[in-house]
Amino acid sequence: MVFSRYLLFFISIIYLSSCDLDKTAKLKGNLPKANGKPGEIILVMDSAQWEGELGKTMKAVFHKAVPDIPREEPMFSLNHIRPKDFQSILKKQKNIIICTVLGDKSNGNRRLKSFFTDASLKMIRNDPALFMLAKQDEFARGQEVLHLFGETSDILIENITKNKEQLLDHFLEAEGKRFYNSVYAAKVEKGISAHIEKKLGCNLKVPFGFEIAMEGKDFIWLRSFSPDIDKNIFIASTPYTSEQMFSLDNLLKLRTELSKPYILYKPENPESYMVTETKNFDVFRNEINFKGNFAVELKGLWKINNYYMGGPFVSYAMVDATTNKFYYVEAFLYSPGKPQRDLMRELNTIIKTFDVVKKTDLSTSQNDRIP
User: In this structure, how many other beta carbons lie within 10 angstroms of the beta carbon of residue 53?
Assistant: First the structure.
């Protein structure tokens, strides 16, 4: 079922990419630069459908709560725009969804239907499974535009519901690329990155503003601190013993053991150290492919024992098959009272530059055997 949904999603892109949806195509070099806040999507849709079931479906998909932060925040903020108002500055937004019900006779849908050629309309009528087309830089540079369409609201709602995770992933990937370009626009802390490679035998692209807060034999804690926002990353390694190390219970136990001697530990209070919040919040565990390596991703909340302090974290655990080292890299945030969705996406972008395999090491096929 998962494969068929992904297949449908990408067939939609490939099949319709030959259609001339944008009749006024421009050279990329002549386009203005896209603007807009992170996590914000402009949704162009007929007002009646925005207030109806189609609008409810879009809200259910993109207003879904971010699962790994303590305060409820939506995955994306949707700003509804009427078709007649979609012009000028609004066309320069970074993320845009244009949602069209082709068989609807309202003024709004008639305006949006003008994006389509007769050939593309015929193609969609003959195959109701075709429902979307992704375009980059359609009206501005650095822009992601997603056309969603269907002959009826019911057909479009069905396709959106079936492919909701892929639709979310589409914009999350675009946001991730923007965060990367933003974070690394300034100079990189090459000295710290070189120190990490020498000490731990791994790579991390450390952005400007991070410093080494503490380190141990197989442990480095990086920190970018301000009075309002405290960004943290730590990397640790330990010998790999068995695939049981990847279980949720063992990863949480290891997380505490690795960080306890170093992070926010108070010698005057030996019971004050970082732990994982498991009583009131779930920890999300996902098995993923991380640059050719089997890895486990964790997302959850941390706290300090006997001290009112905590926040969200995201981490990756994996093995370097060339050294038999088990690596754990984590980003965690302390920013009480502040929105945390975009800060965590920024930190996640940074730790995704982590790499346990050097170019001269074994091929990814050997790493695929771990665990």
Answer: 12
Count how many Cα atoms sit within 13 Å of the Cα of residue 183 in the half-sphere of its side chain: 26
CA distances from 237 to 250, 350, 363 (A): 15, 18, 21
User: Percentage of residues in the chain with pLDDT exceeding 70?
Assistant: 87
Residue 211 has φ and ψ, to the nearest 5°, of -130, 160
Beta-strand ranges (E) seen in 139-292 are 144-150, 211-216, 219-225, 230-239, 274-276, 284-290
- Give dist(CA 10, CA 25) in Å, integer: 23
Contact in structure between 11 and 118 (CB atoms under 8 Å) = no
CA 241 vs CA 244, 294, 323: distances in Å: 8, 15, 12
| pLDDT average, residue stretch 118-143 | 88
Rounded-to-integer distance, Cα 97 and Cα 136, Å: 12
Instruction: Provide the pLDDT confidence category of residue 24 given band limits of 50, 70 and 90.
Output: very low
Q: Where do the H-state alpha helices sit in 105-231?
A: 107-113, 118-126, 153-162, 164-183, 190-200
pTM to 2 decimal places: 0.85
Q: Which CATH class is domain 190-367?
A: alpha beta
pLDDT at residue number 6 = 44
**What's the CA gap between 71 and 73, in Å, rounded?**
6
Domain segments of the chain as ranges: 2-183, 190-367
Angle at 61 between CA 169 and CA 89, to 5 degrees: 80
Q: How would you list the strands of the sheet with 40-44, edge to edge?
A: 77-81, 40-44, 95-101, 144-150, 132-136
Token duo for residue 260: 């306890």
Q: What are the tens digits of pLDDT across the range 46-64?
A: 999 999 999 999 999 999 9
* CATH 3.40.50 correct for 2-183: yes
Q: Rounded to an integer, what distance in angstroms lies between the CA atom of residue 78 and that of residue 45? A: 11
